[in-house]
Amino acid sequence: MVTYNNTDNDSNLLRSVDWFTVLLYAILVIAGAISIYAATYDFENTDMLDFNQFSGKQILWIGLSFVVGFSLLLIDRRIYEAYAYPIYGFMILLLIVTAFIAHDIKGSRSWLVLGPVSLQPAEFAKTATALALAKLFSTYGFALKEWKNYAIAIGIIILPVLCILLEKETGSALVFMSLFFVLYREGMSGFVLFATFCAVVYVVLVLKFAAFTIMGIPMGTFIVFVVIMVLVVGMLLLYCRSLILGRNVAIGYIAAGLIATGLHFVGVDINGYVFFFTVIGISLIYLLIGMLHDDIKKVAITIAFMCVSVGFMFVVNYGFNNVLQPHQQIRIEVTLGIEEDLRGAGYNVNQSKIAIGSGGMTGKGFLNGTQTKLKYVPEQHTDFIFCTIGEEEGFVGASLVLIVFLTLILRIISIAERQHTTFGRVYAYCVASILIFHLAINIGMVIGLCPVIGIPLPFFSYGGSSLWGFTFLLFILLRIDAARKDYGVW
After folding, report:
1. Nearest CA to 358 among 337, 376, 383, 331?
2. What's the domain range around 316?
3. Would you say residue 351 lies in a domain?
4. Predicted model pTM
5. Which three-class secondary structure state does DSSP give residue 264?
6. Is residue 203 part of a domain?
7. Nearest Cα to 469, choosing from 172, 45, 149, 59?
8. Which of 277, 312, 332 is the last residue before a domain boundary?
9. What is the DSSP string of 313-327?
10. What pLDDT, in 10s, does the model give residues 93-150?
C-alpha cells in the first residue's frame, strides 16, 4: 500500500531532483550549440554569441530552456496528473487550428508564426500525449486486458498523428508511434510487436524487389507470399503448439511448390497470384477445420495474421503509389537502394556520408570540416547536424555523443523503474521511447539507413520548438520523479 506525505518544500525539492540527469541535459544542449556554431560558421562573423547567427539564437533558446525547465520543477507535480487530459485536449485543438491557419513552408503547414518567433505545436504535443497516456494508465482498475482499453490507449496515440498528418508533417507524426513500446511495457502482447516487425519486413521486400517478376508477379510480392507461408508454419508449431497442423500445412506448402516447379520445367505457365491464393486458400480451409480440434483462439489468431498479412502486402503497393508524395517515394527508393539520385533526393544523404567518412577516427578538428565550411550538406545545422560532429570530431567524438545519449536514456529508464506510481512510470517510459525513436531515426537518416523524414536530433538540431519540446518532456519527468521520496511503501 502506498501513502503520501505532504512534505514537498523547496529544500526537499532541491535534494530530490535527479541532478545527474540535469547534468546530462546541460552537456547535450551545450554540445548542440557548439555543433550549430561549427555547422554555420561564418568566416566574416566569428562571434558565437551574435543573435543574428544560428548559434547565437540557439544559445538564447538554451537560456530560455533552462528558465522553462526550472520553472517546471517549481510546479506541484500533482498539477501534471490532474490537468493531463485538458492539456492533451488543448494541444489537439491547437494542432487542428495549425493545419488550417499555418503558412505553407516547404510543403508543410506545421508552423505558427507569432511575431518574430515560429513555433511547431507538434513538438509540444509529444509531452501532452505522454501525460494523457500516463493519466489513462493510472486510472483505477485500468489494464490492457480488454479491447476497450486497448482502443482508448491507441486512440490517444493516433489522434495527434492524424492531426499532424493534416499539417503534412509525416516525420513528426511517426514519432508518436514510438509510444506503442510503452503499451508493450504495460502489458500489451508481444505478438503486436512481432506483427509490426513483420509489417516492416513486408514493406521493405515489396518495394525493394518490385522491379523484377517471377511467375508473372513482382518478385517482392512473390517473396512476401513465401515469407507469410513460412511464418504461418512457424506460428502453428511455436505459438499454437500444434505439431500436427504445422506439419501438415508445411507438407502442403512444400508439395505445392514442387508441383509448381515441375510444371514450370515442362513449359506450363502458372500465374503467381492464382497459385498463391489457391495454396493459401486451401490452407485456410484446413486451419478452419483444425480449429475444432486445437486451441481455437490461437489458431484463429494465426489465421487472422495470415489474412491480414496478405491484405497488407497489397496495401503497401497502393499506399506507395497513390498516397505518398513523389518526393517521399524517391526518398524511400534512395534509402532502399532502388534509385541512386545523387543530385536529387539522395544528395543530402550522400554528402552527409562523405562528411562523416572523411572525419576518420579523430576528425579534422573543430571548425576544420571542409564539407561543413563549404556548405555541401544542406540543412546541416538542423536535421543533419550529426554529420558535423562526425566530420570534425571523427568516430571518437561521434561515439562520445552517442554514449551521453545512451547514458541519458538508461537513466530515464532507471527513473521509470523506481517510480511508486503508474503515472510516473508510464510517463517516464514515454519520454524514453520518444528519445530513442528520435535518436535512432535521425542517426539512421544521416548515415543512409532510414529515409529522410525530417526528424531532429534531440538537443542538437537548431530550433527553439524542438529544444523546448524535449525540455518540457524531461523536466516534467524530473519534477514527477522528485516527489518519489514523498511516498512510503508498507
Report:
1. 376
2. 211-332
3. yes
4. 0.84
5. helix
6. no
7. 172
8. 332
9. HHHHHHHHHHTS-HH
10. 999 998 888 777 766 778 887 777 788 899 999 999 999 999 999 998 888 888 888 8
